[in-house]
Design goal:
Blueprint: E1 4-6, E2 10-11, E3 16-18, E4 24-28, H1 30-36, E5 39-43, E6 50-51, E7 56-62, E8 66-70, E9 73-80, H2 82-86, H3 90-93, E10 102-109, H4 115-121, E11 125-127
Parallel strand pairs: 1-11
Antiparallel strand pairs: 2-3, 3-4, 4-10, 5-7, 6-9, 7-8, 9-10
Length: 129
């Protein structure tokens, strides 16, 4: 079964999503959450930290592996979702909602794909927001 890709978000080739709101929220796609398996530990950048598009800014650890969290944008982190640090499984249960990771004031975007481009590249299914 194809994983859902929300139509109102844009995506990096590294499987992070970016919302259009200001500040923008960042999370990982359902494709990534499914590939990772059960997420058991999350390391996120701290509020006030600078992140660079295409560079690692944290880690997601699952029962299968440890993966870098790669920032889709350059900017300053303004909020961190402490709930996913306390309950990492939220990323698997609701990757586009309660499983968001951090919010950032965007200075510059990295290379981002539309929902359709991402879905085609990773055999996923675009769904309405």
């Amino acid at each position: 079964m194809a994983q859902p890709v929300r139509s109102d978000l844009r995506y990096s080739a590294d499987h992070e999503w970016l919302s259009a709101q200001t500040p923008a929220r960042v999370g990982v796609s359902a494709v990534a959450a499914d590939a990772l398996g059960e997420v058991v530990f999350v390391e996120l950048p701290e509020a006030g930290a600078a992140v660079e598009a295409g560079e690692p800014c944290g880690e997601l650890e699952s029962t299968k592996s440890v993966s870098d969290l790669v920032s889709p944008v350059t900017g300053t982190v303004v909020a961190v979702n402490g709930a996913v640090v306390d309950e990492p499984g939220t990323i698997n249960a609701d990757p586009y909602g309660e499983g968001w990771l951090f919010a950032v004031e965007v200075e510059r975007e990295g290379e981002l794909l539309s929902a359709q481009e991402y879905a085609e590249r990773f055999d996923a299914e675009v769904v309405p927001a």
